[in-house]
Amino acid sequence: MDDITDPANLPRRKLSREERRLQLIEATISVIAENGFARTTLGEVARRAGLSHGLANFHFESKEKLLAATLDHLSDEYRANWQAALAVAGPHPADRIAALIAADFAPVICTPDRLAAWCAFWGEAQSRPLYQAHCGSNDAEYQRLLDGLCRELLALGGYPGDAVRMARVLRVTTEGVWLDLMTMQAPYDRDEALATVWAVAAAFFPRHFGPEGRLTV
Amino acid sequence: MDDITDPANLPRRKLSREERRLQLIEATISVIAENGFARTTLGEVARRAGLSHGLANFHFESKEKLLAATLDHLSDEYRANWQAALAVAGPHPADRIAALIAADFAPVICTPDRLAAWCAFWGEAQSRPLYQAHCGSNDAEYQRLLDGLCRELLALGGYPGDAVRMARVLRVTTEGVWLDLMTMQAPYDRDEALATVWAVAAAFFPRHFGPEGRLTV
Amino acid sequence: MDDITDPANLPRRKLSREERRLQLIEATISVIAENGFARTTLGEVARRAGLSHGLANFHFESKEKLLAATLDHLSDEYRANWQAALAVAGPHPADRIAALIAADFAPVICTPDRLAAWCAFWGEAQSRPLYQAHCGSNDAEYQRLLDGLCRELLALGGYPGDAVRMARVLRVTTEGVWLDLMTMQAPYDRDEALATVWAVAAAFFPRHFGPEGRLTV
Amino acid sequence: MDDITDPANLPRRKLSREERRLQLIEATISVIAENGFARTTLGEVARRAGLSHGLANFHFESKEKLLAATLDHLSDEYRANWQAALAVAGPHPADRIAALIAADFAPVICTPDRLAAWCAFWGEAQSRPLYQAHCGSNDAEYQRLLDGLCRELLALGGYPGDAVRMARVLRVTTEGVWLDLMTMQAPYDRDEALATVWAVAAAFFPRHFGPEGRLTV
DNA sequence: GATGAATGAGCCTTCATTCAT
DNA sequence: GATGAATGAAGGCTCATTCAT
């Protein structure tokens, strides 16, 4: 009855807290991406994770907290991604800006599921306080960093213009092409998306960002 | 009891089909903006319009169709706005591009409610087929137009670069700053938003779009 | 504006009270037959009658009363039918019983719509008081008549058995084959239905009801 | 507060799936019988079962499927009843026909609630496809059996007549007296109902079915 | 008479949450 | 830890009824 060698007992083996949480968070991203915020239910999340209905509540206490944890996960993952990219980038501001741009289209980050989940969080007014609470500081950190890099490169290159606006354009262009990838019926591919953001950098910093997607420092 | 000024008697006043539909659509935009897609209920829409919930179904048959009609309304309104702007713009491509950019930030269009509603429709996976069906052709028309104008201006000004990408950047930058206006805790104002998009145009077409938000043809 | 020769005014011409009522009752029978009791709505009845929604209530005050009037109509029609059949039948009890049986399968009465409506009224518990109130006396009259005829024929023919039971069997067999016509996937036709009831009469009164559906008095 | 005898705690007691399903099906039969098809609501069914309305959907997914399960239950119960009766009946066709007739008036089957529910399913056009899908095969099996028995007895006894029609009359007479029990204000009792069907058998097969409800083989 | 907009009660269904096992 | 039965609030929708026009 309690034979641990019985295969029927195997699926029931208890996973660690953290493993279960991650499993449920990934399922949540997937469900949000596919069904949208409005039709994301705990039941569907649990089903996709191959778990029972009640377990999601057991691990996260409430749907609200599961969504918050999901947003946290996405935000941390995003931050870790660009930080890793920065770590291996050269010291020149153009290098670092290029690294940040490229990082946004890394295969781990620029996944259909993850893009759709981001869009859902942006679009849902209900989630705005959630978003502020969980991504606000990460976003602000990113923005300060990009602002600084643009200011440095502006000074180095003697370019005209407003660094804050340029940083903003770089950021929102990325978000915009992400939206395109979600919204359009026959969207362009990830390379074209990256090239589009690169074109912005090339327009702002023509002597550093070449037309062919290469740095020309 | 028969006091016609009694507000309780007002809802029973009959309006024409079109007036009621518009009233309900405006209420829908308002509710989506405030509560998000997931928490937009027929009941709340009706309450905000000061009507009974049954009336929404009477006029639109279902929630789905009310949302579709709302999206149609937004889409038509947006299209009418930029077409009107084009109608009074000069023939030069720079004039026309500037008109299109400015139109996106017209007070009628760039309303908090309307921006939030647009974002909600973009973000909700559930509404993607709806969006395609109701805005797809308008979007495509806008994009073709902007593509053509960029191509003309590129040729006229002897600028380097890819017209399609430039048109795309102009469009997604607008969407991006709209998102900022929705997402940020302390967003910049509409003028700064417009200036941001203008900065893109100035970077792409420096001899036509001056740094001060003025055409320099 | 009030040109009576304008063809557009023709469909609006006001019908007499009785014509409208009949029109609505026929529509009700049709809707009950097709959709069943549970899905019979005033709206559908009005639509099928080609009239406006509110008119049904205007003429019948409530749905309940429309159904009652429909049942009255069916009941009166049924009664009128067998009374007419009796009026032209000979005086012999066998003649009169045969006339009653045949009357139940007259093309005017034994219509799919009407059968289905009868079944609906029988089946719907809710309508049982309604049924009693509106058909009870007609049913009782019919039953007394048939009881009497069976008693006479029993005496005349020297048959054994209980007249009341025989009358009951004749009646319920008719109802039963009606139900068959409604319930079965591939029911037999009206002639076979009539032959079935005739077979009962032939079993009870073999010297009067021949095997070939002919009286053998 | 934790008193297990407190009735308020009872509903929270968990039962197995099958027990709950049966409980809800019995409640459904009862509500259909009392209120009719049109006024059978999940809420009323749940209330009568002493459960929450959500549970009905939990166990049956939809009202439609609850009704289908109810019909299945009735149909299986009916079939099991006459099969059990056949199992203990003698081999002679008259014995078997008599067993079938008597089975239809067994106290378990011929309950007011169950009769009313049957009538409701017959009468409601909406439920006709449901009926075909769930009772069609059982009905056909019963009919084939009765056809065969009548044919055998006809041959054995040298009776004139059409076996199929006789079988049909036996069946519809049963249904008809059932309807009487439902429809009439002061119906006769179950014994008289049985005697009525017996009278039919006696008329068809006089040398086997005696006038006193006894087989005379 | 006739129309159809408007109301609101009531239904079916979904789903977050609780909790006995 | 894990399961899944049970609850009940809330949402979408239908429809009988009312009533201004």
Automatic annotation (TrEMBL), chains A, B, C, D:
Residues 41-60 bind DNA. Keywords: DNA-binding, Repressor, Transcription, Transcription regulation. PROSITE patterns: HTH_TETR_1 (PS01081), HTH_TETR_2 (PS50977). Residues 18-78 form the HTH tetR-type domain. The keyword Ligase does not apply. It holds the Pfam family TetR_N. The keyword Amino-acid biosynthesis does not apply. Gene3D superfamilies: Tetracycline Repressor, domain 2 (1.10.357.10). PANTHER family: HTH-TYPE TRANSCRIPTIONAL REGULATOR BETI, HTH-TYPE TRANSCRIPTIONAL REGULATOR RUTR. This is TetR family transcriptional regulator. It comes from Paragemmobacter ruber.
